[in-house]
Amino acid sequence: MRRHNSQIEKNEYKYMDEPKMGRCSYNESLVKTAENKKKYIDCKLNRLDGKNVLLIALPGYRDGIVKKMKELGAMVECINDKPNDGFVCKSLGRYKIGFYQKIIEKYYKARLEELKDRSFDYVLTIRGEYTPINSLKLIRELFPDSKLILYMWDGLGQLNTKGIELKWQYYDRVYTFDRIDYEKYKAQLSFLPLFYYDDYLPEKTNMETFEFDVAFIGTAHDDRVAVVKELIKQCELNGRSCYTYFYMPHLFVFIYNKLFNRKFVGVKSYDINFRMLPFNEIYKRYADSKCIIDVENAHQHGLTMRSIETLGLKKKFITTNKDIVNYDFYNSQNVLVVDRENPKLDLDFFETPYKDLDDAIYDKYRLDNWILEVLK
């Protein structure tokens, strides 16, 4: 694997005092002089000007990425990461069912053949779960001058990342959102946390009055529903207003969990929604809340999108992810870490306001800076 080293230190993400204009560092809040500020902005806006990007990703989250890439001057072509986003097709692809792998390869070959006369500066694959090795070889063959990049926003050792290590050699750079996975595979991986969509942020993020004291919006899986419901119960017993929205992609997923997931014993069908909320509605609900709850996937350590969205929204955050204390935005006044096995709230956490952080922290986790880093 052709790799460009990116060294990260513990309690990492150190900032340069004065970014060099040639490198177009993305920490613009630390550009001190007005002249360099203008140079920086011009440099940033031109970083992707005229660049061609082939983005292989799932619908939904990719839409904001495409929009921001185009704002940065790139020309973007998209390929869905699988032929169909239906429940059955996603399941067949995830379990690597033999005949369906052939269907996926045929799908990629047809889409790539449509683009074979194009040239791309970057081919960025997000997740990479469904992209077959034979398709990666074809991408190399059709676009030999392109820089191939993989960004993994799922932790290793799970069903949807099983065998993905075998694909790393076909990329020039592989990023992970999981700090623990990075520490284990430093020679092969670069570390880059997720981002927040600043376009969806409300005009006022740090309000004094709220519709809800606590909110949770997310997919219902593992023990997440049970943990969130326990925290919500404690909140309601202490007079706190709460909002929850548990999402599942299909009724069959709910039935499967009811049959085989012992953590779903107390979960009722009326607890679950089968419609995913649009991003603008999610951000609005978060903006109307003082605190946001997050329970990460049971077997991964990377910070969820919700963790970073909470940062952008300047909200207090309640999480079971103990690794959050190793990130530069961690502040005990803003972030409460609870025990997943025995979740207990510290009610004093609600009594203190959100503490603003350095502007450089908010800049760093914005989507545009994530794009500039992943495509550097």
How does this model look, in words?
The chain folds into two domains: 47-192, Tubulin/FtsZ, GTPase domain (Rossmann fold); 199-363, Rossmann fold (3-Layer(aba) Sandwich), CATH 3.40.50. By secondary structure, it is of the alpha/beta class. The protein is built from twelve helices and twelve strands. α5 (133-142) links the parallel β3 (122-126) and β4. The protein has a six-stranded parallel beta sheet.
CATH fold annotation of the largest domain: Rossmann fold
Our count of helices gives 12
User: Structural class of the helix and strand makeup?
Assistant: alpha/beta
Report how far apart the termini are.
17 Å
Name the beta content range.
15-25%
Q: What is the gyration radius calculated from CA atoms?
A: 21 Å
Average predicted confidence as pLDDT:
85
Text of the CATH class of the largest domain: Alpha Beta
Shape: globular
The CATH architecture of the largest domain can be given as 3-Layer(aba) Sandwich
Could you estimate the helical fraction of the residues in percent?
Answer: 25-40%
State the major sheet. 6 strands, parallel
Please give the order of strands in the largest beta sheet.
Answer: 2-1-3-4-5-6
**Low-confidence parts:** 2-27
How many structural domains in the coordinates? 2
| β-strand number | 12
